[in-house]
Amino acid sequence: MPRILHLGCGNFHRAHQAWYTDRAGGWTITGVAMRSRAVPDALNPQNGDYTLVTQDTGGTDYARITCIDRVLFAPDEAQAALDLIADPETHIVSLTITEKGYHLKGDGSLDVDAAAIAADLVGTAAPKTAIGLLAHGLSKRTTPLTVLCCDNLTDNGTRLRGAVTAFADAANMGWDAKVTFPNAMVDRITPATTDALREDVAQETSWNDAAPVATEAFSEWVIEDSFAGPRPDWHRVGVQIVDDVAPFEKRKLRMLNGAHSAMAYGGILRGHTYVHQAVDDPVLRDLAIGVMAEAATTLPDGMDPDSYADSLLTRWENTALDHALRQIAMDGSQKLPMRLVATTQELDGHAPASTQGIAAWIAFAKSETEAGRALDDPAAGTIAAACESEDPIGGLCAVLGVTPALFGGPEALTLSWE
Ligand code: CS2
């Protein structure tokens, strides 16, 4: 059977790409867990099977997904992963490794000085980063391959190609095969798994699934039509294959993810736990609506932002799905530049709601630091140091690659509702 090798086999992959592939039929996915044993330990004894639980206002649905055959643990099985990247039966290597997994600088290029990348550039045996694995695997590849980024990054395929090429150049490597890196927009709200979900699945399906995933009914996947070889019949199960993904990606990142981040920081500060509570708080609802309206003005014509915004509000109001604000709040240093700063820059600083979203991140960083909690963020050390410095706002803006002047000065980065 033709294979997809998927790097980063977490909940989002299992609610989204694996679900589409399972329904399209005829393909196998081999997963690669990049850092934690949790997923291989849970899934391998179950032959890769798991329950996808759709929790929506219309009801709950339990579906068994069976297209994953096994999950490798990269730190121990790098050679097996490299062999599968080079294997002609593997036609697609896809990725969901989160924003920080790419080690990109603010301008979107690979940070060759990042510790993990620098280590992979000197050691050849077992690359630890996805970029290193791809560059080494591609150097052995002789037949066409599609490398499909499924993370929420601006120009995600283009950036991934740039990063892998930069790594290969720095390591004096390269590849001869035809390799394409389509851009893609991915969307499905997928919370982390809780014990309550495992218990619910055991009760409803009579199967003690160690790794169920909860998600919403809505799902969207838009992929640029630049495959190097075969792909599953994804278009038959709702995936849109288009010439240009950019408008879809911009709408999703700036409207959904931008408002999500603003609600996450604002919501935690206002004592909420889940998205459905935040969107029910008039202050945060207005903030989300404002972020979406500003983002909408940066979109090309024909993207129907008003009905998109309405459908987002409905999705966020889904009380059947407990989507924790703290999950969205992770890795703000990586997310905010693409979600909120980009809109503000494109509007020459005239984006009061997006600015308030960034102010909420600043207030959140300060309050966490004051409470003695390190942020869950690769820049946590720099963020804590900035918070404890004499100019926290300037220091935190620097983490996002901007200065307070972009927003009209530090006053604009103070929350109006605090
Ligand atoms: C969220 C996203 O965690 C986050 O940062 O904004 O994971 C969001 O739920 C997805 O992009 C929805 O498709």
UniProtKB/TrEMBL annotation:
Domain Mannitol dehydrogenase N-terminal: 3-235
GO molecular function, one term: oxidoreductase activity, acting on the CH-OH group of donors, NAD or NADP as acceptor
Presence of keyword Oxidoreductase: yes
Keywords: NAD, Oxidoreductase
Domain (Mannitol dehydrogenase C-terminal) ranges: 244-385
Transmembrane segments: none
Domain of life the protein comes from: Bacteria
InterPro entries in the record: 6-PGluconate_DH-like_C_sf, 6PGD_dom2, Mannitol_DH, Mannitol_DH/Oxidoreductase, Mannitol_DH_C, Mannitol_DH_CS, Mannitol_DH_N, NAD(P)-bd_dom_sf
GO biological process per UniProt: mannitol metabolic process
Xref: Pfam families: Mannitol_dh (PF01232), Mannitol_dh_C (PF08125)
PANTHER family, alphabetized: MANNITOL DEHYDROGENASE 2-RELATED, MANNITOL DEHYDROGENASE DSF1-RELATED
Protein name: Mannitol dehydrogenase
